[in-house]
Amino acid sequence: MGSQYYLTTPIYYVNDEPHLGHAYTTVAADALARYMRLRGEDVFFLTGTDEHGQKVERAARERGERPIELADRMVDRFKALWRRLGISNDDFIRTTEDRHKRATQLFFQKIYERGDIYKGTYEGWYCTPCETFIPETQMEEGNICPDCGRPTERLKEESYFFRMSKYQGALLDHIEKHPDFIQPITRRNEIVSFVERGLKDLSISRTSFSWGIPVPGDPRHVMYVWVDALANYITAAGYGQDPERFARYWPANLHLIGKDILRFHAVYWPTLLMAADLQIPEKVFGHGWWTVEGRKMSKSVRNVVEPNRLMDEFGVDAFRYFLLREVPFGLDGDFSRAALIGRINGDLANDLGNLFSRVLAMVDRYQKGMLAGPKEPSGPLSSGAREMTEEVRRLMMEGMAFHRALGRIWDFIGEMNRFVDEKAPWVLSRDKERKGELEGVLNDLGEGLRVVALHLAAFMPGTAKAMWSQLGLPGTPEEQVGEDLWRWGVQQGVREIRKGEALFPRIEKEVAQVGGGSPAPAAEKSGSAGSVKEGALKISIDEFARLDLRVAKVLSADSITGSKKLIKLEVDLGGERRTLLAGIAQTHKPQDLVGKKVIVVANLQPAKLMGIESQGMVLAAVADEKNIVLVVPEGDIPPGTRVK
Hints:
Layout: E1 4-8, E2 12-13, H1 20-38, E3 42-50, H2 54-63, H3 67-85, E4 91-94, H4 98-113, E5 117-127, E6 132-134, E7 153-162, H5 168-177, E8 182-183, H6 185-196, E9 202-203, E10 205-206, E11 214-215, E12 218-223, H7 225-230, H8 232-237, H9 243-249, E13 254-258, H10 262-275, E14 284-287, E15 290-292, E16 295-296, H11 307-314, H12 316-325, E17 333-335, H13 337-366, E18 370-371, H14 382-399, H15 402-423, H16 425-428, H17 435-459, H18 461-470, E19 495-496, H19 541-545, E20 549-559, E21 567-572, E22 577-582, H20 590-593, E23 597-601, E24 607-609, E25 612-614, E26 617-618, E27 620-624, E28 627-630, E29 642-643
Parallel strand pairs: 1-3, 1-13, 2-3, 3-4, 8-14, 13-14, 15-17
Antiparallel strand pairs: 5-6, 5-7, 7-9, 10-12, 11-12, 15-16, 18-19, 20-21, 20-23, 20-29, 21-22, 23-26, 24-25, 27-28
């Protein structure tokens, strides 16, 4: 086994119905946990529920029930959703558990004994929905919370305060010395700016309600819900109760959270840990939010995306794949039915599903259903598999770039599809003298599919298990842990395949609108060349950042038989070779393009045109069909350079 790795999601608030955002964070954490276990790491993956606070107490009272009854009911919903999504958490913590009460009171007492907690009076504004104290300088007009847009309340009550201001310099110093502590870098910059404006002492207890953990020695006070909630991470690691376990897993390697709660995890939590003389987690990663077809999710407009409904319609693994493939992790993303269906029909049904069924059908037909390991360790697909395996490892374990990792897996799937077309096993089967070559081709394809299934076990565990079984491999991918598992050709011996149902049938017809909301307005047709319509759709800087624009050098260019508009380009993207189709044949000759540098959209979803997969898009200014000008960089810019 490898080293210990402690991974957490936030503990989810029981006053909220489980929604797309909850699923996103937890699926991402699960994919990372599964991947690291496959690599032989000792992973401890924690999730759970935050159950205390004034908001829960009020909501329970309005329903005529006790707070714990509301919490029990909502916990069941979260647990049911995690089971359905295949979440592989090692622990599920509830802040109402006795173990958490003991650990949190010990944590509070230790900070108090060091002189960093004192009693005073809090007077100011408080947002109950956000469970946050709001400085008057940050208040919106009308005493509105700047975060959620709802009214705040004026409070004046006795309170214990944490000397957070004392740790301002220490926190800034830690961030400077550990540049990866807060990720992505935009979130790091936000926190640095916030801390540099000056930290105030933090009110950390309340007396106006009782649903919470009592302050040790002063039970009239209950702890501020964020002290209670954040302490769950050390509770689950064994703080004050299991020293051996705590030494093994603390500090946490990663807190994976939504960006809306970044301040609590990147300011309050590390300063509290400093005061308790405990180590700070290695990394806090704040990912973006999801909108729905360009609109913020809201119950009032009936567009809240409910994960169970999506899984009912499209399946668990298709939902998991879409969440992690569609959006660069860390940025905001937009959910749309069209995008989800496009991913299912294009990536899953066409690229992966069709390849898998074709290969198994040929093994069944030409080799009587028998498949063996590759004959040579350096077969035609082996180098592509090795390169993909190493790059996915780097993307997953260093950057949590889930969308890029999946994109790299799909690059290899595309390589396998091209290999099938180039080798044409159906042609080889007609020549008895080439039987050995046919066997080599099919066995290489079988090994390639094994490697793909192994990688997909982190992202789509059900699909990976089905592929593993149909390939005639023993057990499941999760049972074959270790570095050797990732080597090309490790699976030797003859085995019998077990053909099953299609992995991802195509979606041929529209299905009901998810969430019941109205679809976003269709985009207007563009006006005349050079015009910009008043009121045209504006995008944020984060949305623009989702475009991966890069310099590419044209290596070759060819006309396409049967097309008057398209030219096939082979381009260099800085060590990566891609095929692009560009609709510029009426204004450009192929031979004039070779050696030219162009700008391409490198993270565009691949599309097939004239039977050829285009892996990006060339940028051009288009006045009309006879006036198309390519966008080209000035100066000697190397291929692969990012355009910002």
